[in-house]
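job 3f2a | input accepted
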Amino acid sequence: MEALKQELKGKIIEVLNLEDIAVEEINDNDALFGDGLGLDSIDALELIVLLDKDYGIKLTDPKAGKTIFQSVETMATYITDNRTK
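job 3f2a | predicted structure (85 res):
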């Protein structure tokens, strides 16, 4: 799980072009949206594409994203439970 969290942090930085943030600066339980990393709805779409492309997870319920994308921790747990790749 730790390796997956580190991998996710790197992918989030890469996919969302967060050049000013290092992997070490993202805590597992930091909020991804709002006061945390400050991501927006466009970033959420990018994360949905990331889940599909890299882990074979298709999100069909947009409301589920709100729960899944709370933090790196919640994303890693969801991926572990649902990945097909």
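job 3f2a | The chain has four helices and no strands.
job 3f2a | closed
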